[in-house]
């Protein structure tokens, strides 16, 4: 297997962290981005101590300049980006009539605009090289609207559309959408309505699967030969029903 240069957004916890561990253990070089650089520093130290290849850089996906610098830095150091895992996301839940407009904007900025920023940053180089792979982490919320997650669902429906559109436009670049169901991470630890958040946290902790299950699905897509595009994977807890 060829070692790939893999960039992961939102690698400081949850699915991003699990994906970093999985892909680094599979022999790839992982470049980890998030705002909590103390977490990233610790993870990179752990991975490199175990003999894997990893580095990190500060990243705010809501800022195109930050995403471009994250990608450009990796290209300058390694000559290319083989895989971008567009994973960063937030989920402050509340009913629409609670009018938490700042939360709506944050979800749009991180979950949708952040994914588009990632695509904008890697696409010119991948197009020029006629190679590359864009993996986007959506959600089962991208297939079914459930209150009180309406705006969260809207962002995930939107990234599903973006990923499918990118796949249709790309004859050389592989495009994968991975949609998790309830997964035990920090997603339900902050933001949104307190009562709803606590209920979702309890649910995720009781029926949710480990983030490593999602990392393995991403690893499967990454491991396929160049001509094979794993377009969509849904991975959810059996108990989710
Ligand atoms: N857990 C679930 O049940 C579930 C289900 C379906 C889909 N998902 C999706 O899975 C993805 C990962 O979430 P998770 O469950 O692993 O939750 P998590 O543990 O809270 O991880 C979210 C990650 O996103 C990063 N992030 C948030 N805002 C960011 C920003 N502005 N710039 C850069 N990074 C940012 C966080 O890092 P910093 O705070 O350090 O920046 C963190 O590393 C999300 O897209 C989420 O929607 C999760």
TrEMBL record:
Residue ranges constituting the Ketoreductase domain according to the UniProt record: 4-185
Keyword Cell division assigned: no
InterPro entries, sorted: KR_dom, NAD(P)-bd_dom_sf, Sc_DH/Rdtase_CS, SDR_fam
The entry's keywords: Oxidoreductase
Any one GO MF annotation of this record: oxidoreductase activity, acting on the CH-OH group of donors, NAD or NADP as acceptor
Domain of life of the organism encoding this protein: Bacteria
Family the entry assigns: Belongs to the short-chain dehydrogenases/reductases (SDR) family.
Name this polypeptide is given: Oxidoreductase
């Amino acid at each position: 297997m060829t070692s790939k240069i893999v960039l992961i957004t939102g690698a400081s916890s949850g699915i991003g962290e699990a994906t970093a561990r999985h892909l680094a253990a599979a022999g790839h070089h992982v470049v980890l981005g998030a705002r909590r650089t103390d977490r990233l520093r610790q993870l990179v130290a752990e991975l490199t101590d175990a003999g894997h290849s990893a580095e990190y850089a500060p990243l705010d996906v809501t800022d195109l300049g930050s995403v471009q610098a994250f990608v450009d830095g990796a290209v300058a150091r390694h000559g290319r980006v083989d895989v971008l895992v567009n994973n960063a996301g937030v989920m402050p839940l509340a009913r629409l009539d609670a009018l938490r407009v700042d939360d709506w904007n944050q979800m749009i900025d991180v979950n949708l605009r952040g994914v588009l920023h990632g695509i904008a940053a890697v696409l010119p180089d991948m197009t020029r090289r006629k190679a590359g792979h864009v993996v986007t982490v959506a959600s089962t919320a991208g297939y079914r609207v459930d209150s009180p997650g309406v705006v969260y669902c809207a962002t995930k429906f939107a990234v599903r559309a973006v990923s499918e559109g990118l796949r249709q436009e790309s004859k050389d670049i592989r495009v994968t959408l991975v949609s998790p169901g309830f997964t035990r991470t920090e997603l339900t630890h902050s933001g949104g309505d307190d009562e709803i958040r606590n209920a979702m946290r309890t649910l995720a902790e009781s029926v949710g699967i480990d983030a490593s299950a999602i990392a393995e699905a991403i690893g499967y897509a990454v491991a396929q030969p160049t001509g094979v595009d794993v377009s969509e994977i849904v991975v959810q807890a059996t108990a989710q029903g």
